[in-house]
Amino acid sequence: MNNINNSNDNKPTFYQEEIQKNNKIKNILKKPFLFIICISLCFVIGIAFSFSFVFMKNVVIPQYANKSLIDSSSDNVVETSNNIVKYAIQNVSPSVVSITTLKTEKNFFNQTVKSEGVGSGIIFHKTYAEAFVVTNYHVIENASLVGIAIDDNEPISAKLVGKDENLDLAVLSISLEDMDVQERNNIRVAKFASSSSVNVGDYVIAIGNAIGEGITSTFGIISSTSTDIVSNKRKLNVMQTTAAINPGNSGGALINLNGEVIGINTAKIAEQGVENIGYSIGTEKAMPIIEQIMNHSNPPSLGVTVTDVPQELSYEDIAGGAYVIKINKGSPAHLSGIKTEDIITSVNEVPILSSTQLVEEIKKHKENDVLKLKIIRNGKLKTIKVKLTSTITKRTSF
Q: CB within 8 A of 156, min separation 6: which ones?
């Protein structure tokens, strides 16, 4: 064992290590500027990492997002949330229309005055002859004229199909014959999803004809899935959203990030100091009413005009039938190849003895049913399959 009084070269290791540490600290302390820079740099890196973790972790597409929104041409491609919002708006905007109204009312002095109004609507169904739009009833209430504009073009005269004043819903129709080719080609039926699966905090987008200046979009979240309000003297159970709903947005679409309609925008709180409180009727409540209106107003149809078979055209072994005298362009009959002067003798093996019986037999079926028709054409028996669609019934003009 060496004596503790030996030279520095023979001092114990422990003592030497402490001397070395102390010397290092002294060297660092001799350079205070370098020490401050190191500490500051570590602090900045820590703050940057924390910021990226907190604010950037939700940028990627959630796994449950609509797969069609993700580019499948490359492996594990993840779009940003900005693109999801953009794609959702692009998918739904063509289905949202602008509504203009002309109302005739009495003022305080019992004078007749006319006023213009604006609103929005959603195309939810299309046949060979008509497009159907759902909106809020208060948008068209007391209106003498209603126009619907597609792609912010000139308004097309609309008719009332049906309404539910208590739930503040109305269904309108516009004729495809009143549109130009571009408008007909641009019509897109919106995709609806159930609002029962919506949760507080879900991202949503409100699309509509805000303040009558054309179709625009706002972004927000669901702040309540069930709230009771009184709007236009009607008690409604609605969803609450932070997406801005401005005058003119009524009747427009509230959509999720998959581009599906989950609500029909209906109201906002218009009080000073109150912001980001808008209301939307959930599809869970709206769709049964819309279906009820449509089922009552739109029985399925072949799209033909028929009469009883003229006596001079009767064939042996054929008792009666329905004689086709007109076919609507684009109708199920037209698309399936039925022609004028055909005689329809049976529907799904049920004999047809008259034109009235054909009409009654068609009423027993629903839209999208495929029927097997037997017809006589130029004396020869043929079988044709026809898929039913809705027909035009009498609409109420404004």
A: 147, 148, 149, 150, 174, 175, 178, 179, 183
Q: Encode pLDDT of 122-143 as tens digits.
A: 999 998 889 999 999 999 988 9
- Please choose, from the candidates 125, 127, 243, 244, the residue with its C-alpha nearest in 3D space to the C-alpha of residue 189: 125
- H or E segment and range at residue 360: helix 355-363
DSSP 45-113: HHHHHHHHHHHHTT-BPPTTS-GGGS-TTSTT---BHHHHHHHHHHHHGGGEEEEEEEEEEE-TTS-EE
| Residue 359 falls in which region: left (phi positive, over 0), alpha (psi -120 to 50) or beta | alpha
- CATH 2.40.10.120 assigned to 81-297: yes
Residue 189: DSSP 8-state: P
Band (276; pLDDT cuts 50, 70, 90): confident
What residues are labeled active site? Answer: 138, 168, 250
Superfamily of domain covering 300-396: PDZ domain (2.30.42.10)
Amino acid at 267: A
Tokens of 146: 């209603």
Most confident of 32-36, 180-184, 252-256: 252-256
What residue segments make up the domains of the chain, in order of their start? 11-56, 81-297, 300-396
| Residue whose token pair is 């449950």 | 64
Mean pLDDT, to the nearest integer, of 384-390? 88
Separate counts of helices (H) and strands (E) for the chain: 8, 22
pLDDT tens profile 40-62: 676 666 665 554 544 444 433 33
